[in-house]
Write a structure and sequence with these properties.
With 236 residues, the protein is an alpha/beta fold. It has one domain: TIM Barrel. The chain is built from nine helices and eight strands. The protein has an eight-stranded parallel beta sheet. Helix 2 links the parallel strand 1 and strand 2. The radius of gyration is 17 Å and the shape is globular. The model has no long low-confidence stretch (mean pLDDT 95). Bound molecules: pyridoxal-5'-phosphate (PLP). The site of pyridoxal-5'-phosphate has 13 residues, from strand 8 and helix 9.
Length: 236
């Protein structure tokens, strides 16, 4: 039996930091969903944290890797989010396996998700990924194009848009992330008030191991954390 006690420590530390950040922002930690990003760990580790540490949402960013782990996972009560850039030709492999696609950022992909979702008789929940720093070679919709894009996606019958996701740029000084988080928050509020009336609690997925406290301060409702949870011996 592998010794997983470092995971207990990492999860306790991160959850405490989430709680503290929420409290500082005058929010409740219950408003914030923790997505454990499991892209670097195998199915045994995922099962351990699901069975023992109350993890019920995981994030995977590669189709192949998700498929390799999928059959070994204890999936009862486990939600799987796809968080990486998704190639159109791979949608069919995950359409019946994931609960949310966080990274919708182009219409060809939307069209394919709609088509495959229809085939398996479901409506797929998605977040629209915003390229908050307007980085040329990164995924995500430019903030100024987000509303037009949303209008197009809302036309698909087998897709339900439930919020917004952003990654943000790599910043040497992590506080520099704040302005990108703030802009994404404005897009999120705009979407929520104008277009997503039918959604009970729209999602703003923002914040990773470095800087999630700023994301929580800025209104994030979902943080996606990998390293701080799964790296042995440290929580960042
Ligand atoms: C890897 C990844 C994360 C988690 O990043 P960490 O720095 O390990 O916390 C979050 N979101 C996406 C889209 C990722 O690919």
């Amino acid at each position: 039996m592998v010794n997983y006690s470092y995971l207990d420590d990492n999860f306790a530390a991160v959850r405490e930091e989430i709680r503290a950040a929420a409290e500082k922002a005058g929010r409740s930690a219950e408003e914030i969903t923790l997505v454990a990003v499991t892209k670097t760990v195998d199915a045994d580790v995922i099962n351990y944290v699901h069975d023992n540490l109350g993890v019920n949402v995981i994030g995977e960013n590669r189709v192949q890797s998700l498929l390799e782990k999928y059959d070994k996972l204890h999936r009862d009560g486990l939600k799987i989010h796809f968080i990486g850039s998704l190639q159109t030709n791979k949608v069919k492999y995950i359409i019946d396996k994931v609960d949310l696609i966080q990274s919708l950022d182009n219409l060809r992909l939307a069209k394919e998700i709609d088509k495959q979702a229809k085939k398996v008789g479901r409506v797929m929940d998605v977040l629209i990924e915003i390229n908050s720093a307007r980085e040329e070679n990164k995924g995500g919709i430019m903030p100024e194009e987000a509303e037009t894009f949303l209008d197009e996606v809302l036309k698909f019958e087998n897709i339900r848009v439930i919020g917004v996701m952003t990654i943000g740029p790599v910043c040497e000084d992590i506080r520099d992330l704040k302005k990108f988080f703030e802009e994404t928050y404005r897009t999120f509020i705009d979407f929520s008030t104008k277009k997503l009336h039918n959604i009970d609690s729209p999602i703003l997925s923002m914040g990773m191991s470095r800087g999630f406290e700023y994301a929580i301060e800025t209104g994030s409702t979902m943080v996606r954390i990998g390293n701080a949870l799964f790296r042995p011996g440290s929580n960042k």
